[in-house]
Amino acid sequence: MPDADRIERLRRVMADQGLRHLVGLTGAFHNFLDCDPVVALTGLRAIGPCAALLDADGALTLLVSPAWDLQRARERCAGVQVAATHDLIGDLLSLLRQRGTAPGTIGVAMADAFPVGEQRRLLAELGDAVRAADELLLRAGAVKSAAELADAREATRIGELGYQRLLEVVRPGMREFELAAELLHYMGGLGAPDNFLLMSASQHNQAVRAPGRRVLERGDVLLAEITPMVNNQFSQICRTVVLGPASDLQRQRFALQQQAMAAGRLAAVAGATVASVTRAMDEVIGAAGFADYCRPPYIRVRGHGLGNVSSLPGDITVDNEVVLQAGMIFVMHPNQYFPDVGYLMCGEPVAISADGPAQVLSAQWAELDQIEEFGA
Fold first, then answer.
1. Rounded Cα gap, residues 36 and 234, in angstroms
2. Closest of 32, 220, 18 to residue 133, by C-alpha
3. Does a cis peptide bond (omega within 30 degrees of 0) precede residue 228?
4. Which among 130, 176, 239, 285 is placed 20 to 30 Å from 370, CA to CA?
């Protein structure tokens, strides 16, 4: 279902910018780090290429493919005119021509995975009527609604339950992909139809990766990046568990990450920049002698936005000058490679408050867990 407040914000921006129509296109490849324009406009998570058209008067039209998905789309998109299509761009062009295509009056936002040939066809036909509107959509969805915040909380709860399930079922001889399958099945049953999961283990991790065929054994450090979705809103937690007793050095390094997380949360206030939050985390780890490891190739980012509606504030890096607004949600993770113990993960989803530090959505912050009798 469309978010009424977001549609009204978009209409105001369209009026300010002289746009008569706003088009969102998706190739139905859903990435939790990206904005899906059709999700942002209609709330529908498509299973094939689709187009959403918002007119200046608030009328909203959805063109759906494959055609047999029409009934589901109508059920999910109350108040939207929904039609099936066998020629998405052709039918979209017909709608736009009926409404008028004066120069600069059509804003177009396209998901990265929308077919390139179809992109070119649309832009060639519309010519100077088109203006890029990707940033417009991103900004309209940057501040989450009350419903999206509730969905983020529920997705976080499911992620935490999934991690507890991991601790219960992991055993010597299990392969990474077997453990991942157990988690995905379990969290799906809790109400998360999608879940981006990175999970891997090593005696000395360089980073986290997709689960593979490696057999888990005593002494491994198991990393888990768990990212469930509820009603189009993703959340993410980052966790580390030692399969066997943790060493004093591992505990010390993980405690350093916890301190960095606390510093980042205090810095994450409305009006601060993403860069300042990143520096707050980096400074804690750098002061302990690891400043050279606070950049690629040892780490990539200190967190990131959570789609599908908007990925703002974007990647949590020292060069991101986006200003945080109350209601933004992102994952903050001072995940870090240490030359003596390897890569460790520690991260929580946070919501920017109207007053004071960011609110952590997790019920419990990450600890360095251990399974002392693993493989003993």
1. 13
2. 18
3. no
4. 285
pLDDT at residue 28 in the model: 84
The continuous run of DSSP H or E covering 147 comes out as helix 146-169
Per CATH, the homologous superfamily of domain 4-140 is Creatinase/prolidase N-terminal domain (3.40.350.10)
Distance of CA 295 to the CA centre of its chain: 22
Closest CA to 283 of 259, 253, 314: 259
C-alpha distance across the termini of the chain, in Å: 52
Contact present, 202 and 342 (Cβ < 8 Å)? yes
CB atoms within 10 A of CB 183: 24
Task: Report d(CA 110, CA 138) in Å as an integer.
Answer: 11
Nearest to 373 by CA among 240, 245, 248: 245
Tell me, what's the pLDDT at 35? Answer: 87
Contact 272, 323 (CB under 8 A): yes
Q: Report whether 19 contacts 56 (CB < 8 A).
A: yes
Q: Is 226 within 8 Å of 347 (Cβ atoms)?
A: no
Query: Of 188, 214, 186, nearest to 201 (Cα)?
Result: 214
**What number of CA atoms fall less than 13 Å from residue 240's CA on the CB side?**
34
What would the two tokens of residue 103 be?
A: 């120069």
C-alpha span between 346 and 350 (Å, rounded) = 13
pTM of the model: 0.93
Cα–Cα distance measured from residue 175 to residue 247, given in angstroms and rounded to the nearest whole number: 24
pLDDT at position 34 is: 84
Report how far residue 305's alpha carbon sits from residue 113's, in angstroms, rounded to the nearest whole number.
19
Q: Which CATH architecture has domain 146-370?
A: Alpha-Beta Complex (3.90)
Q: Where are the domains of the chain?
A: 4-140, 146-370
Which tokens sit at 190?
């809790």
Distance between CA 47 and CA 39 in Å, rounded? 11
